[in-house]
Automatic annotation (TrEMBL):
<dbReference type="GO" id="GO:0005886">
    <property type="term" value="C:plasma membrane"/>
</dbReference>
<dbReference type="InterPro" id="IPR027417">
    <property type="entry name" value="P-loop_NTPase"/>
</dbReference>
<dbReference type="InterPro" id="IPR003593">
    <property type="entry name" value="AAA+_ATPase"/>
</dbReference>
<dbReference type="InterPro" id="IPR003439">
    <property type="entry name" value="ABC_transporter-like_ATP-bd"/>
</dbReference>
<dbReference type="InterPro" id="IPR015854">
    <property type="entry name" value="ABC_transpr_LolD-like"/>
</dbReference>
<keyword id="KW-0067">ATP-binding</keyword>
<keyword id="KW-0131">Cell cycle</keyword>
<feature type="domain" description="ABC transporter">
    <location>
        <begin position="2"/>
        <end position="213"/>
    </location>
</feature>
<comment type="similarity">
    <text>Belongs to the ABC transporter superfamily.</text>
</comment>
<dbReference type="GO" id="GO:0016887">
    <property type="term" value="F:ATP hydrolysis activity"/>
</dbReference>
<keyword id="KW-0547">Nucleotide-binding</keyword>
<comment type="function">
    <text>Part of the ABC transporter FtsEX involved in cellular division. Important for assembly or stability of the septal ring.</text>
</comment>
<keyword id="KW-0132">Cell division</keyword>
<protein>
    <recommendedName>
        <fullName>Cell division ATP-binding protein FtsE</fullName>
    </recommendedName>
</protein>
<dbReference type="Pfam" id="PF00005">
    <property type="entry name" value="ABC_tran"/>
</dbReference>
<dbReference type="GO" id="GO:0005524">
    <property type="term" value="F:ATP binding"/>
</dbReference>
<dbReference type="GO" id="GO:0022857">
    <property type="term" value="F:transmembrane transporter activity"/>
</dbReference>
Length: 213
């Protein structure tokens, strides 16, 4: 499903974050990207979803070279993905329900379908009773779970999760990982970037370790 061929990425400051990286991820895998802060985990996920472009090399998604697609096509690419980043923005003047609805509204889903999917997504992250709350009324943990609900509501083919258990206690963290595993059983490819190997130790076989890119 995803293939990196000699991919490198550096920023204006000159630091090379990703260096000549080669790897592949098959459909329906659960893959852990492990590494210390600054090792390139977040940049790797941003390259997959087109938030960043590599300086060199090729990235393939479902057989298509996404390093060659136009910027106007990137939004169509992302509709196939659920994306969870620690700094995911939420609309503070909108309710939980309205925030989670955004991916469905963009794709033109019916009102009936939107209601059904939002209820299911919020139930999965234990926030169904918070649907009418405004974001400002939520704790950091609840805000993070809203981001997770928004990422899964559109039934993506691949889920990119950068530190998805951040701000969550062990009980909630394990429930979120079980949710990802449930999605994986239905064929969703899961890519989790984390430094918290204690939480996932022994659960998953496929681990990519990043060291200085």
């Amino acid at each position: 499903m995803i293939c990196f061929q000699q991919v490198s990425k550096s920023y204006l400051i000159g630091r090379q974050v990703i260096q000549s990286m080669n790897f592949h991820i098959r459909s329906s895998e659960i893959v852990i990207i492990n590494g210390n802060s600054g090792s390139g985990k977040s940049t790797l996920l941003k390259l997959i979803c087109g938030l960043e472009r590599p300086n060199s090399g090729d990235i393939f998604f479902c057989g298509k070279n996404i390093t060659q697609i136009k910027h106007s096509e990137v939004s169509l690419l992302r509709r196939q993905m659920g994306i969870i980043f620690p700094d995911n923005p939420l609309l503070l003047n909108r309710t939980v329900y309205e925030n989670v609805a955004i991916p469905l509204v963009i794709t033109g889903a019916s009102i009936k379908n939107i209601r059904r999917r939002i209820s299911a997504a919020l139930d999965k992250v234990s926030l169904l009773d918070k649907a009418d709350n405004f974001i400002m009324q939520l704790s950091n943990s609840e805000k993070h779970r809203v981001c997770i609900a928004r990422a899964i509501v559109n039934k993506p083919v691949v889920l990119l999760a950068d530190e998805p258990t951040r701000n969550l206690d062990d009980v909630l963290s394990n429930s979120i990982l079980r949710l990802f595993e449930e999605f994986n059983r239905f064929g969703v490819t899961i890519i989790i970037a984390t430094h918290n190997m204690k939480l996932i130790s022994g659960k998953y076989d496929r681990i990519i370790n990043l060291q200085q890119g």
